[in-house]
Amino acid sequence: MQNKSTTHSRRDFLAATGALAVGAWLGITQDATGEPKAEPIIDIHQHTNYSGRLNDDLLLHQRKMGITTTILLPAGTPAFGSSTHKGVSNGLQAMCTGNEVCYEFSCRYPGEFTFGANEVPDLPGAGQEIEKYLKRGAKVIGEVKFGLECDSAPMQQLYRIAQEYDVPILLHWQFQMYTYGYDRFYKMLEKFPKVNFIGHAQSWWANIDRNHTDQTVLYPTTKVTPGGLTDRLLSDYPNMYGDLSAGSGLLSLTRDEDHARAFLKRHQQKLLYGSDCNDSAGSGDACQGAQTIAVIRKLAPSREIERMIFYENAKKLFKLG
């Protein structure tokens, strides 16, 4: 049980940080003393109960990072077929909770949080479950993180739903684990040109490098030669976007800073900030999301490009107010 002083302090902090977040959302750029305020940031990738983190701590974490609006990506229903690796992948392999928790948490903090819709694609009724939350206002389908071929019938059902509801879909690419067949994914981009796809995770970011040939290497640290598959998909397909979240996204920037500067410039209208970190710190070396913010600020070739990645691209893609 918490003592009263601790509870009171926590409540005061939540209220104060909430006021700051709302101020940023409304475009207020100065505080009462005339000092400049941080500009708004949209975080497109967070989870409830991530690795057991309490959702009150998630709220504090996002406010400490300076996030204006957070999109919560739910897990699917616990299942024990091959697409979840006999249950290993339940909760997105990170204890994350599902649609209803994300929806209810977003309702508690409107404007500051919104939500996606998700389900294990090959479960009976998967489409209906996703549509239920899209009708409630879900902004995205995902995170789609399942052991299925990218062009399988269950996955294409999700793409058709995304097309019907005009929402993007976020795919986790991880060689031999999640979303198989990256080398032929371009066929889905061509088959569903009205669907905006967002790439994420290890294999997506490893393949910015033209010389990345060993797909079992998920976190390459070598210098980057432009023209990898991911680089080409972003360049060649207007419906392909990139989620800079997680350790894989951060590494894609830090492994070769000269390449990263050019990459951010080249794909400035296609890149989206996300955190996807499970800590409770919200700052410093303990928080990968905060590190990614710092690296983007360091490497973005211009203030305008920084603003696109942190805010403008996501606002447009997810149709945020």
Structural commentary:
The protein has 321 residues and is an alpha/beta fold. The chain is 40% helix and 9% strand. The chain contains twelve helices and eight strands. The N terminus is likely disordered. Keywords: Hydrolase. GO terms for molecular function: hydrolase activity.
Strand order of the largest sheet: 4-5-6-7-8
Q: Supply the number of helical segments.
A: 12
In terms of DSSP E residues, the strand content is 5-15%
Which bin fits the share of residues in helices?
Answer: 40-55%
CA radius of gyration? 19 Å
Low-confidence stretches: 1-13, 19-33
* Structural class label: alpha/beta
Q: Based on the coordinates given, report the CATH architecture.
A: Alpha-Beta Barrel
Shape: globular
SSE pattern: HEHEHEHEHEHEHHEHHEHH
Describe the largest sheet: 5 strands, parallel
Can you give the mean pLDDT?
Answer: 92
How far apart the termini lie comes to 39 Å
Strand element count: 8
CATH topology: TIM Barrel
GO molecular function: hydrolase activity
Pfam families: Amidohydro_2
Domain Amidohydrolase-related: 87-320
Protein name: Amidohydrolase
Give the structure's gist in a few sentences.
The protein is 40% helix and 9% strand.
